[in-house]
Automatic annotation (TrEMBL):
Keyword Transit peptide: no
Domain Thioesterase TesA-like: 24-212
Family (UniProt): Belongs to the thioesterase family.
Top-level taxonomic group: Bacteria
Pfam families: Thioesterase (PF00975)
Organism: Micromonospora humi
First and last residue of the signal peptide: none
Keywords: Hydrolase
UniProt-listed GO biological process terms: lipid biosynthetic process
Gene3D superfamilies: alpha/beta hydrolase
Protein name: Surfactin synthase thioesterase subunit
GO molecular function: hydrolase activity
Length: 256
């Protein structure tokens, strides 16, 4: 993996203190790295936020889309491997949470690196499967589901030119998320902290609680009012928990 490759995938919006813990932020379906700009601003300089930009959107819109979540995990893992000399944590929302889990599995199994924490937001545990087929709907049906979840501003979806640009990426991400199936294996050693909205139609509190089955380390669950994008309303509270959990992580504490 070259520096140019890393530059395509990783966005660093704010400078961080030397030796600070890295927080890898993985977007939801249809999302982009810029969703995490406010997170980077809030946590810098104590935490170095690495926002991941998937192919097929914004400045990467001309690159081939990835419709397979394990393949996307392999690519993200390849980008992160050169950075495992310092502590890192993973945060993912919705599809990004499943991706964070699979990247953490690769780090632990292939590199002997235990992430400081895996933060799973707005996503049921990998072992809790639903038969979802929104990705097979026509464009109108797909747009309706995105609007229902309030993940993308309605104004963007009403702009025909913007819509033509982002709809392929949304469909590819929905395909990756809905066709993903957990392959049973050893649980993570990394702690898992899960966040969810009490009225999230995509993940019940019980489904999110099952994340505890995927780690031998500590597990925490935090619930908030709201639906799938409860983060938009409760960002400060969620970031406070992240900041507290990462406060004790120091450079040089790489674990195997």
């Amino acid at each position: 993996m070259t520096d140019d490759d890393a530059g395509l995938w990783i966005r660093e919006y704010h400078p961080a203190a030397p030796g600070s813990v890295q927080l890898v932020c993985l977007p939801h379906a249809g999302g982009s790295a810029s969703y995490y700009f406010p997170v980077s601003r809030a946590l810098a300089p104590e935490v170095e936020v690495l926002a991941i930009q998937y192919p097929g959107r914004q400045d990467r819109r001309h690159e081939p889309l990835v419709r397979d979540l394990p393949e996307l995990a392999r690519r993200v893992h390849a980008v992160l491997r050169p950075r495992t000399d310092r502590p890192l944590a993973l945060f993912g929302h919705s599809m990004g949470a499943s991706l964070a889990f699979e990247v953490a599995r690769l780090l632990e199994s292939q590199d002997g690196v235990t992430p400081a924490v895996v933060f799973a937001s707005g996503r049921r545990a990998p072992s809790r499967v639903r038969d979802e087929r929104v990705h097979q709907l026509d464009d109108r049906g797909l747009i309706a589901d995105v609007r229902r979840l309030s993940g993308t501003e309605g104004g963007l979806l009403g702009d025909d030119e913007v819509l033509r640009m982002i709809l392929p990426a949304i469909r590819a991400d929905y395909t990756a998320a809905e066709t993903y199936r957990y392959v049973p294996g050893p649980p993570l050693s990394a702690p898992i902290t899960a966040f969810t909205g009490e009225s999230d139609s995509k993940a019940t509190v019980d489904e999110v609680r099952s994340w505890q089955d995927h780690t031998t380390g500590p597990f925490d669950l935090h619930t908030y009012s709201g639906g799938h994008f409860f983060l938009n309303r409760h960002q400060a509270a969620v970031l406070s928990i992240i900041r507290t959990q990462l406060a004790g992580v120091r450079a040089g504490s790489r674990t195997a």
